[in-house]
Design brief:
This protein has a domain of 45 residues. Helix 1 runs antiparallel to helix 2. It is flat and about 75 Å long. By secondary structure, it is mainly α. The chain has three helices and no strands.
């Protein structure tokens, strides 16, 4: 019976050690996050995009959100069975049709919009 008590004691100490280690790692990660958020806030204040008070609030909100446990929202249509995924290669796709001209035009229009946004971003960075 003494052997069983020894195993339970070791398991308990292992659990305490793991919890302590996890707490230490989380503290380091949280400190690193705070430093990164503060650097970002300082840069925004330096550019004049936000005030010092807004920067302080932003850093506090980021750290607070990081401290909150993440909870996955419940899925409404959760079924006990896994969802089936069918993979069809290009050779196997009998119903696939070549892209219509409107699809190609849409893609080209989207590319132009992205390029315009990238140019605007570059222009704003230069200011």
């Amino acid at each position: 019976m003494a052997g069983f008590g020894n195993i339970v004691q070791k398991a308990f100490y292992l659990g305490v050690g793991l919890a302590s280690y996890a707490n230490e790692k989380a503290g380091k990660t949280l400190a690193e996050l705070r430093i990164q958020a503060q650097k970002l806030a300082d840069e925004l204040v330096e550019r004049g995009e936000i005030t010092t008070e807004e920067a302080r609030k932003m850093v506090d909100e980021i750290v607070q959100q990081a401290q909150q446990p993440t909870v996955n929202p419940p899925q409404e249509n959760a079924s006990p069975q896994p969802r089936r995924i069918e993979i069809i290669s290009d050779e196997e796709a009998p119903n696939s049709t070549p892209p219509q001209s409107t699809d190609v035009e849409d893609v080209e229009a989207l590319r132009k919009q992205v390029q315009a946004m990238q140019e605007e971003l570059r222009r704003l960075k230069r200011q």
